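anyone seen this seq b4? input:
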Amino acid sequence: MPDKLAGYKRAEAALPEQMLAWQLFGAGMENFGREGRPSAVPLPAIGPRELLLRVDACGLCFSDIKIIRLGGEHPRLRGRNLSRKPVTPGHEAALTVVRVGQELADRFHMGDRFVVQADIIYRGMGLAFGYALQGALAQYVAVGKEVLEGDEGCYLLPVRPETGYAEAALAEPWACVEASYRAEHRPGFKPDGVLLIVADSAAGDAWQLPKEPRPRLALIHDFVPETVRQQAARLARELHLVTGDLAAVAQEYAPDGFDDVIALGPVGAKLLERAAACLAHEGVLAMCSAQALPEAVAVDVGRIHYDGIHLIGTDKPGIAQAYQRPRTGELARDGSAWFIGAGGPMGQMHVQRAAQMRHGPKVMVASDIDSGRLEHLRERFQPAAERRGARLICLNPQELGREQFEAELTTASDGRGFTDIVLLAPVPPLIEQAAPFLAADGVFNLFAGLAQGTLAQLDLTPVVAKGQRFTGTSGSHISDLQLTLGKAESGELSPNGSVAAMGDLYATKEGLEGVRDGRFPGKVVIYPQVRDLPLTALPDLKDSLPSVHAKLAEGEIWTREAEAELLRLRLPAQAPPPSDEAGEPS
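predicted toks r here
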């Protein structure tokens, strides 16, 4: 008998005239699909410079929930009439080429495998896969110039034949995790950027500006010492003295925001808040003061996450020292790390990564208010931590109470604070509670998707005096996905460790509801080509598909071998038939 899986990998099956796709027709789960089911739609036709890709696996993401909840009000869909032009979500995708446009025959071939870098930019416009562009919660998807000829080149990254479909699909969310540890501020002023200098009346005149790189424009606000004004005049190509409201100054001189803001002396919170609010994308606020800052500052932590702004500082006269980075954004070698809200799918990824790092943290604290998730996390990743002589400590602050919880944190960090704190729950008070536990030169990674405008009251004196940093990233870049895929294919990283449940395409809605409600401790993966696979948690495979369950790794972890067995059992003998208008098999 022919090997069904081998034929599938070679993309030998005849293509259907119709396919199944989950389309979003408006805001709300009731507008996702038709009567709670995927629609039967024509198989996409392709042009000479397009590809038709089979979707082999698609991970479900909380971002998909946000798209469905907001519909046409989603920032990446705003202005689109979804009732007339629906979108298919899904951006964590493993794909196989099944049809090639004639002008691409020298670049792509039947059976080639890829993952897609979802944050696609084409001619300066963001056209993310699964947002503005049709995504992977379908059996097939066509891609064209936006994906193949984007501003950063081709957004399809090749996958080795032996790599599993789920682990390839989950390289995308793992790339977001990797990207968060690569976040770095500039080592100096933005070349040809806009520099604003503000000061407190007690700033003093000992401050020294770096001599390079040179900004295009320097704006000098009230109380800036004359010695600094003279340095700025020599440094910048153009200089202006400005007064009054900083928002008005920005509107006149820097409509896109200030690239760098230097705050000299113990500047008050209100001025720092106004200056930070006027930073450009990836702008830097450098606080330079030999004295403690007088009060807590309301920091827009959402902008740190989504706009990549950086807060840095120094208590030394040389302002260049504020830009120096005593360490990278990577977890400190043999350090101590606290993962807040670690029980969810993305939190488990961060803990898994730390537990498996060769020189990762020696002490890892995972906190969550769900003890069941914490126990699942402990069972999965404590052995990996112990193999390299590290400790994984799981704490439920709700059960312990605040006083005992904080005592446990102090003990775990030997009273010195954590070299790294990673926020995985979008709750601003958690940032305020955790910040005092950050060590000198520590990095606070704001990974959770905090909306812009979300404020946290923070004492920024340790940023000035102790070199602390707050970083944040949203999404990933091609280089991040390449790095992650390389780690997965070399065995350094196992995205399969994130899989918690799976299902066929009909299970998508229930899977998304499970993601929304926190039903599973890890990722849900949809296999659009398989049949008769209701949403199933890995432990439940023991009853429904025992031969698949038998191929799981210790700790009930998904494997390539288990996936291959699933596909042999549940792939149809030929292309699945289309569905009728109600979405049921015809």
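Confidence is low (pLDDT under 50) at residues 575-586. The first strand starts at residue 18 and ends at 21. kinda curious what u guys think
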